[in-house]
Amino acid sequence: MIEKAATAKSRQLTAGVERDRLILSLIRDYAIYSLDASGKVASWNLGAQRIKGYQSREIIGKHFSCFYTQEDRGARRPEHDLEKAAVEDRVETERWSERKDGSRFWANVILTPLRDEKDRVQGFISVTRDITDRKRSEEELRKLSTRLMNLQDQEHRRIARELHDSEGQSLSVLLMSLSKLKRCCASLDEESQVLLSESIEIANQCLRDIRTLSYLLHPPLLDEFGLISALHWYVEGFSQRSGIAVNLKVPHMLNRLPAEMETSLFRLVQEGLTNIHRHSGSARASISLEQDGKYLNLRIEDYGRGIDPSKINGTNGHGTGVGIAGMRERARELGGSMQIESDKNSTVVSVSLPLPAANTAVAQSA
Fold first, then answer.
1. The domain 2-130: what is its CATH number?
2. CATH architecture assigned to 225-366
3. What torsion, rounded to 10 degrees, do the Cα atoms 163, 168, 169, 174 define?
4. Backbone φ/ψ region at 61: left (φ over 0), alpha (ψ -120 to 50), beta
5. Which strands sit side by side in the sheet containing 337-342, from one edge to the other?
6. The predicted structure's pLDDT at residue 313
7. Could you give the CA distance from residue 109 to residue 63 in angstroms, rounded to a whole number?
8. Spatial distance between the Cα atoms of 213 and 164, rounded to a whole number of angstroms
9. Model pLDDT, residue 315
10. What is the mean pLDDT of residues 174-186?
11. What average pLDDT does the segment 303-314 reach?
């Protein structure tokens, strides 16, 4: 009886395995295949055939490195992925993958080890999705985002110039007229004198506010004297307005950078300090800008309450908002990268941008 029960159970397990294998083999939207411990293809489903172009008889027994690009094979990426999957029990990557005909597609690949009862790796399961359309959509969105940011910068520059040259000049003329009126009308009664003095002060305040707004939209120092002068001016004004003490560490001399790079770096600092003021609760911040060989590194740090890791990683469905996303896009557009590190005591935003060749050559000869 016991032997019969064991036999029946074994048959049920075998049937279940075969059923699962049949289901996996019929899936067409995902390339699902198994590898032996050395990385050779051991099984192949219809999805793998559709996505990668190989018939099962053509690919079984071949090493899965044939799905990698020549560049990745040269860097031993296939071997590295197998080793990492064996250690971490799961590896997920997004990379270019090659089809049988040599064409490439963007692939999301999940690699999971298969282990025996003694926890020894016997092989791997790979699940691959073709995400080329998604990548194209993301690239189009990035291009649109960059275009919108550039248009925004141009509009900020136009409005700043309009405020300074038109409204600012009109208020200056009004102030001169009011001052002249006050000198000419010394015989006015006390109440009228007070009203006139208050009107002059209000006009002066409006002129100061318009100039500040104009400079915040696009500081003329940025165009005339460069990034370093503009950062000193902005940080000083920010500290006065917010009450946050900012330690600014920048090179005493920095060769002029391309206009779009100087504008983006200024906006990165502006957005970073704005976020600190709005969200961190920190009483102080520090900013450093340093050249390291062919790269320019920007670091913005506060000592406040920090950012929820799920927001930094975007795993809570909300992310870090439009401001941080815009900062990332500015860095990406210039060929650089941005990282955020945060705990309950501080947040550090690090941006690394490649320098134009001309600036690198000047720095090396200096």
1. 3.30.450.20
2. 2-Layer Sandwich (3.30)
3. 140
4. left
5. 245-249, 284-292, 295-302, 347-354, 337-342
6. 56
7. 16
8. 9
9. 42
10. 81
11. 71
User: CA triplet 67, 72, 73: central angle to 5 degrees?
Assistant: 70
Task: List the structure tokens of 294.
Answer: 């062919």
Q: How many Å apart are CA 228 and CA 218, to the nearest integer?
A: 14
Average pLDDT on 54-58 reads 93
Please, where are the H alpha helices in the chain?
2-26, 46-52, 56-59, 70-74, 77-88, 132-162, 168-184, 190-217, 220-224, 227-242, 259-275, 309-313, 321-333, 357-365
Give the tokens for residue 276: 């600190």
DSSP per-residue string spanning 145-180: HHHHHHHHHHHHHHHHHHIIIIIHHHHHHHHHHHHH
> Which amino acid is present at 35?
L
Angle between helices 132-162 and 321-333 in degrees, nearest 10: 100
Structure tokens at 159: 């409005």
Q: What is the pLDDT of residue 174?
A: 85
Task: Residue 94: count other Cβ atoms within 10 Å of its Cβ.
Answer: 13
Angle between helices 190-217 and 168-184 (to 10 degrees): 160
Residue with token string 């411990």: 37
d(CA 108, CA 35) in angstroms, rounded, equals 17
Can you read off the two tokens belonging to residue 99? Answer: 């089809």
